[in-house]
Specification:
single chain; alpha+beta; 5-stranded antiparallel sheet; 5 helices
Length: 117
C-alpha cells in the first residue's frame, strides 16, 4: 500500500572517484576528481577509452553522508580548494590520493558547511 504513495526510490550508488593519466606529461601530478551514480571504472572507461589514453583509478569512495544524503564532486572540489590545493584545470587537482580522501571525509562529516560559516 505504501508503494502507491511513495514509489520505491531507484537504486543508485553515488561514488566519488579519482584517476590519473599514465604517461601524459601535461597531466603529471594531477588527479581528476569526479562523481558518478554508476560503476566508477565503467564511467572512467567511457571518458577515456576512445582516446586511447592509459589511466589508473586511484580512489573510489561512496558519496553518501551518514544521514543518507548524497554529495557530489563539486563539494569535494570546493573542499580541496579551501585546503589550498591547486586546481589548474576544471576537475583536475594537483594533490595526493590522501588529500582527496580527506576532502571526501570532511564533506561526508559536514566540515565543508562549518568552513563556509
Amino acid at each position: 500500500m505504501s508503494d502507491e504513495f511513495f514509489p520505491p526510490r531507484p537504486q543508485v550508488a553515488p561514488r566519488i572517484y579519482a584517476y590519473e593519466l599514465v604517461g601524459v606529461e601535461t597531466h603529471r601530478g594531477l588527479l581528476k576528481v569526479g562523481y558518478t551514480t554508476r560503476d566508477a571504472p565503467e564511467r572512467v572507461h567511457e571518458q577515456l577509452d576512445t582516446a586511447g589514453i592509459s589511466y589508473r583509478i586511484v580512489l573510489d569512495e561512496p558519496a553518501i553522508r551518514k544521514d543518507g544524503t548524497v554529495f557530489t564532486d563539486r563539494e569535494v572540489h570546493k573542499m580541496l580548494r579551501i585546503n589550498g590545493i591547486s586546481n589548474p584545470k576544471r576537475e583536475w587537482f594537483r594533490c595526493t590520493v590522501d588529500q582527496v580522501r580527506s576532502a571526501i571525509v570532511a564533506v561526508r562529516d559536514g566540515q565543508l558547511y562549518e568552513e563556509e560559516r
